[in-house]
């Protein structure tokens, strides 16, 4: 039939392929294949390096000793308040801790709580205890009384090391602790010479040589307990093994392209995953320099970045909004920063932040201390928290499934299995659990009952299991993922789902970057829940009329908060997440709330909520 016939067949095939939408797949490959291949190569190279550590059965302390201290002992690892710590100094200090704890009868598998403010010694203490197999429970130093007792007891601590600045907090709870718990006080200044309870004196007498424990810890052994932030109740102690520490710090570093030459800056609490693993891990595993600040300062953030010539800086939660609210100054752009990394940079301020501070790249990530559904924005895509390959999704098996947004219960099909969301459809992200794969394991919490609450079964096949994150995400057509809200925070009003995270970002911007919490409240004789915003207004300068005008322009009617509460302050977790449970319980009950309250009246402005107006809302005389 010859060449003409063959050309006709090819032409018909091409037309049929295009008509059936095949061109979309070609464009998908064009748009996403380079990203996916680059990420895949980086991930497999990291797996290759991790496999070598596994064969040697090395712990984090072993990696530090053999790869960092041995090869570059005088490399500056930590900078704190202008004092430098070299790799050798960290090694010898941690050896002293290890030997001291052995001498006091602690052994592999014992748990010791660590309650200290940010400083290099914090790292040296838990690193030292890990050398003899002691698990360090990294406790939030902002906790007091009942919550502090809970954190110590839930981890089954046999000992507690605490900073002398927190002595009064420990004195308040001593009678509530188990009688057998050993307490050690540490001081940043010279302690009294006749007080043997100070860890400083014990360390002065301890040997800086490598310890020789009866039973050496290994690659898969427990390293740390790191607590969840406690936004929904008491903190839970998540299990971090040596291999998990290596995977969190290492996989992220490879994926986003962190460098051995980077100088890191972190003002975040070292007791949490973000700073304690993702940042400090770059020093312990790869020999990078980390500048540690005792506490976050919005005005001092870029001053420090500039002063210490940092090239990579860390953020979390509401930090970027606080920094953006500071007056402009020369240090805003007079720096060598090439990347900022963290989670919680809201899309509403993303572009303004990177523009004002001349930030070349943002490596936003998503994950949780205990979870296995961790992702990262590897290519500076605006607003994205990471991606899942549309071409080869099985390589990293995380998915977005349909759930009831209020209860987080999966919506199942006729076979009883979960259903995947389409692009643009919000759902909860889940990570498939594979116990033999370190990147897919779910180690859970010390409390196994709490662990089981985070596992969903019969996900896509009968008998399989996945980690249920509890976060609502949405994917676009290219596989990029965007944070929507926490399940339980999203509410429904006027037949529409309202994302509190999105509304909070808009309200905060209009209110001059003030702290803001949005939640749903019940209104009598109305279906769903109405939005309410609690806004911090310490100096009583918030203009509610300007706020109402701005919200009318920025938000659809169903998403506008119908109630406003002015606050002097709002409680925050140690990782800069705003707490809202108590506020939600108070609602707009004028009998319970002593702060100023406003409601959105029929004229579209916020009017002060009086006792009469409150009664009219409850009776239905005023309809919202």
Key features of this structure:
624 residues, alpha/beta, 8-stranded mixed beta sheet, 18 helices
Summarize the structure in short.
It is a multi-pass membrane protein. The protein has 18 helices and 27 strands. The chain is α/β, with parallel strands linked by helices and 624 residues long.
Describe the protein in words.
By secondary structure, this protein is of the alpha/beta class. The chain has an 8-stranded mixed β-sheet. A 6-stranded mixed β-sheet has the order 6-5-3-4-7-8. Helix 4 packs across helix 8 and helix 6 (145-154) packs across helix 7. The longest helix is centred in the N-terminal third of the chain and has 35 residues, at 22-56. It is globular, with a radius of gyration of 27 Å.
Helix content: 25-40%
**Strand-pairing-aware structural class:** alpha/beta
| Major beta sheet, strand line-up | 2-1-10-9-11-12-13-14
Number of strands: 27
User: What shape does the CA trace take?
Assistant: globular
Count of DSSP H/I helices: 18
- Assembly form of the protein: single chain
Rounded mean pLDDT is 91
Radius of gyration: 27 Å
Q: List low-confidence stretches.
A: none
Domain AMP-binding enzyme C-terminal: 502-577
Family: Belongs to the ATP-dependent AMP-binding enzyme family.
Catalytic activity: tetracosanoate + ATP + CoA = tetracosanoyl-CoA + AMP + diphosphate; a very long-chain fatty acid + ATP + CoA = a very long-chain fatty acyl-CoA + AMP + diphosphate
InterPro entries: AMP-bd_C, AMP-bd_C_sf, AMP-binding_CS, AMP-dep_synth/lig_dom, ANL_N_sf
Write the layout of secondary structure elements.
Layout: H1 2-19, H2 22-56, H3 60-69, E1 76-80, E2 83-86, H4 87-103, E3 111-115, H5 120-130, E4 135-138, H6 145-154, E5 159-163, H7 167-173, E6 182-186, H8 199-205, E7 222-227, E8 237-241, H9 242-256, E9 263-266, H10 273-286, E10 289-292, H11 301-307, E11 312-316, H12 319-324, E12 339-343, H13 347-356, E13 362-366, E14 375-376, E15 386-387, E16 398-401, E17 427-432, H14 448-452, E18 455-457, E19 465-475, E20 480-486, E21 491-493, E22 496-498, H15 500-510, E23 516-521, E24 530-536, H16 544-554, E25 563-567, H17 581-586, E26 597-600, E27 606-608, H18 611-619
Parallel strand pairs: 1-10, 3-4, 3-5, 4-7, 5-6, 9-10, 9-11, 11-12, 12-13, 24-25
Antiparallel strand pairs: 1-2, 7-8, 13-14, 15-20, 16-17, 17-19, 18-19, 19-20, 21-22, 23-24, 25-26, 26-27
Helix pairs in contact: 2-9, 4-5, 4-8, 6-7, 9-10
